[in-house]
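Weekly sync notes, structure subgroup
Attendees: PM, AL, DS (notes)

Item 1: joint prediction request from the bench team. They want all two components modeled as one assembly rather than separately. Inputs as received:
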Amino acid sequence: MINVEDYVERQMQRRETEIAYARILPVVVRRITDSTGKVLNNSMEFDAYNQYWYLVNAYELPIGTRITSDTNVLLLEAHTNDTMEEFWGKITIQLPDSFTGSLCQALFYQVIPK
Amino acid sequence: MMSTTRIIYHPVPFIIRQPLTPVTINTVLPGHIRKVIGIKAVHSAGVQFMATGNYLPVIGYLSLEFNNKRYHFGHLDVPFDNRAEASDAFLDAAIDLAPGSLLTGNYENKVFTGTDYQKTDGTVTGKWSNYIVTIYLKALSDD
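Output from the run, pasted for the record:
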């Protein structure tokens, strides 16, 4: 499994960018249905400009989850804990139609550069 | 011998094989390219087998980063335009390139995404046609 702090540190060094602040941040996506079971919402969107967000727990998200941002688009087609995806900008997390739970937690490592 | 700088057009093609799967672009640009002064992304072939008309304003979104992910150029709408009056203009750019740096990005298809093109098991139907998008970089080269 990739060590997220080491990975991010190396990524920032390669870009000659210094880290001002970093933390682990959970993002909860709720699947909301009406009384008939019709899905009203199963996505969420938030702004992450001028910062880097690394998805830490891709292996815990349902297959078919789609995460889009200004710099990356991820369609989760298989579970692995050996990848580290980076996002920047407006991030949208869309749960697949096959997901029937009520909430899902994506864990990000947020990096704010100096 | 004195080196000369000239304008070249460097193509970066990629193929879209499935409607829902994003395409990742990850290529090293030739070391002789010093500066990008224009960019355009065009549909090369394939969509005409799916579209009924000869113009779709957006078939997908393209995000591009230069200089080993240090510079995010932004997003481009990629149109399908088989009309005679199709624009061949470049978007202005002024990006100094580190020699041999990465061009990275991703492309997200936005058309023909229904279940009549991709089945729930992930395989495409006979109605889907793979298509090619080409990024053209108008660049200054030392070659």
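Discussion: Chain A has a mean pLDDT of 93.
Action: AL to compare against the crosslinking data before next sync.
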